[in-house]
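in:
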């Protein structure tokens, strides 16, 4: 899947004779614009979460309050998007990339549904973005695959003493790493994430999880634990990384 994802991005960036598909360098202006949009997303989604607190069960409310306390570290993480000079490219990408958009043939994957995120206008769907946005989208999908069955199955939830959740976290962590490693290899990015790609991946993972938070609060309140755990996991890893440096 990582290989096919890299090949998809290479194909989408190969139309140099068509301006609609020609790769473009990420500019500092674009970085500042992205940072502004991320700040607005965080503000809007956390406001929704605060309003929803009274209707959440005690365990979910506790997790939600902890996530709400992460507002400043999230902003600090997002700030790296404009504080660091990013020299990567942006291209046309899938824009709605997750496990539901790939078909497994038994020994390979076929990628489908290139119409983009349905919630956005056609003009917005055509905007060029970093391919890492698709990569992050698939990694967030692994997180949903790992946690969905546990959080929504009452038998699992009542019988579990934390082992299933720890196993799910470990599974999504390693599957994401294997996927990202294969993607990097076939995209020609080497075996180690550069500083700018590490920032891009972290930024888009957090952006996706925060976006999912709003979606679940509106459409599937029983699922809100999944993005909450995703945000919690990502912020904890960011804080650990920051402490090491």
């Amino acid at each position: 899947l990582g290989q096919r994802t890299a090949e998809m991005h290479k194909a989408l960036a190969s139309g140099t004779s068509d301006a609609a598909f020609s790769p473009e360098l990420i500019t500092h202006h674009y970085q500042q614009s992205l940072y502004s949009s991320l700040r607005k997303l965080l503000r809007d989604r956390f406001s929704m979460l605060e309003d929803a607190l009274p209707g959440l069960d005690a365990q979910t409310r506790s997790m939600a309050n902890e996530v709400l306390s992460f507002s400043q570290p999230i902003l600090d993480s997002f700030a790296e998007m404009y504080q660091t000079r990013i020299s990567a490219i942006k291209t046309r990408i899938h824009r709605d990339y997750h496990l539901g958009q790939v078909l497994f043939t038994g020994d390979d994957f076929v990628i489908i549904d290139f119409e983009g995120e349905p919630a956005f206008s056609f003009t917005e769907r055509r905007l060029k973005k970093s391919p890492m946005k698709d990569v992050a989208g698939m990694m967030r999908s692994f997180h949903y695959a790992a946690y969905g069955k546990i959080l929504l199955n009452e038998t699992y939830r009542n019988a579990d003493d934390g082992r299933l959740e720890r196993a799910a976290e470990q599974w999504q962590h390693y599957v994401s790493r294997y996927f990202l490693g294969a993607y990097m290899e076939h995209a020609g990015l080497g075996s180690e994430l550069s500083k700018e790609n590490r920032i891009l991946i972290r930024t888009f993972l957090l952006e996706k999880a925060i976006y999912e938070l709003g979606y679940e609060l509106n459409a599937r309140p029983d699922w809100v634990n999944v993005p909450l755990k995703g945000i919690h996991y990502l912020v904890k890893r960011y804080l650990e990384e920051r402490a090491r440096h």
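note: The mean pLDDT is 92.
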